[in-house]
What does this fold into?
Amino acid sequence: MAIEGAAARPAVSASVGRSARRDLLALLNRWGWVKVLLFLVPACLLLTFYLVIPIAMLIVMSFYRSTLFGVVPDFSWNNYLHFWRNPMFPNLLLRSIRLAVTVTAISLLVSYPFAYFLARGTRRFRTTLLILVMVPFWTSYLIRTMSWLPILGIKGVVNYSLMTLQIVSNPVEVFLFNQFSVVLTLIHIYLPYMVVPIYLSLDRLDGRLLEAASDLGANPLRTFWHVTLPLSLPGVVGGIVMVFIAAFGAYVTPKLLGGSSGIMFGNVLADQYSGTFNWPFGAVLALIMIAVVLGLLVVASRFTRLDAVFGARA
It folds into this structure.
């Protein structure tokens, strides 16, 4: 009897579990808003803890005052006034925006033809090129940055080639520790962020639309301008947003390869938290960077829907 009772208990437990699940599903079907709430609560909690609360803390911290003994919760606009009264900070902000725009523009000019060629290639050829594009993601960011030192340095590959071709007689120092080296390295690092979204948009294009344009008498250039480019715009905007944000916030590459003329806004921001420990002023700089990024998203929304850029639909 004891054995029969022990064998019956799992069956009863399973039956009770199935009954409880049926009751729960019936409740969810009866109260649709409960189902929606259950799906929204985890996302809302994540956004609250990882976005809303940190930004709120930055806003509050930006009004505090930094002293030798720590941060004083004293409401003041001095941190914002310090930013605008010192021309170094607005100039660094404009320089960082200019460099980020340069990196984004060159990346777009290089990536679109490559992505177009990639989307129109054979499957085997496409797979090989995609692997080559994704290889940088498998390499450390620091290694990719430092790899340009033996290329652009005084005794690097570029100077050696110029001297071998007798273009210059002595090594030149114009390739490293300036804005040129920062822009070149950032393009190399963030180029895949531009190629991949453009390729995905081009790969999803319906070939029948291109055939219809050709049947209606449109030449290849007209077809590209009126059909291909507008339909690939979500991928273009997505690549622009990702590359600009990454380049605008870069601070490791400018620190290693920028020298005094290649310092960017992110370097000053990082220094406020790890160097001078002026957290209130660092909060001001962080909020300004967030405002620039939000401004970019507003501009991007004028050209295409953001759900098409960051969602699954083209």
